[in-house]
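Entry 14. Ran structure prediction on the chain below.
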Amino acid sequence: MPQASKNTPLKARDYKSDYKPVWCPGCGDFAVLSAITKALAFQELPREDVALITGIGCSSRIAAYTSVYGFHGVHGRALALAGGLKAARPDLTVLVAGGDGDGLSIGGNHFIHACRRNMDMTYIIMDNEVYGMTKGQASPTTDPDWERSKLTPGGTGIRPFNPAAMALTSGASFIARGFTGDPNGLAKILVEAIEHPGFSFVQALSPCKTFRPEQMEWKKHIRAFGDEPTDDASLAAERVYADDGMSTGIIYRRSFPVYQPAGSGDAGPERFDREFAI
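Output, structure tokens:
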């Protein structure tokens, strides 16, 4: 295993594992994997100092495709697992990844509390507005009139969540949106998200070619926000609600106290030896 040093820094490919992704050809999640590894290489982070925690779903397979520490958790609980890890090991760079179903449906309660708690970690939601792994059901971000799902052939009739608005309302201190059709731009966003002290939320628009082939047209509508990030929540809200969800860039960035539980960081092997000593 090559180690990063001043003379031989790791390349993006060094942060990938030997496992071949099983995503469908054309899936946007390939670009998220590329963006994550490019961001880690740019920051020259030692692999043993990084952990990637995921939940369940197509996107949550991503932990297995990297060579950093990883944990493939249960549905919707990735942020809870990541919070426990960050509390025990505040020295680690903790990344969390999942899909719109995993993060905003069963994991929705963990999401809003992770935003307000503001622990120092980065959460990436790969948003394709569908449950891909379980064959194309509507998700919390699916448009109400989407009719291709067999479970909701007439559409859901339910207004979708706005992930950026949810994060802002819940107190996230860094909010951004990227597009998998621009992996380099997404990598730049991830660098800033990882460097930001506090809870960083990145919505990665990630088309599902299999169950949402119409999303391949997103690339025609993607554009930059065109404004510098703001630390004014009211202004950020205006931008988010005035947008159609296709603008990318850093929307909001503000300094808040980072939460770290008292007594955290004392979870080394010596502690476990003491607690389990007979």
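The longest strand covers residues 93-99. Will compare against last week's run tomorrow.
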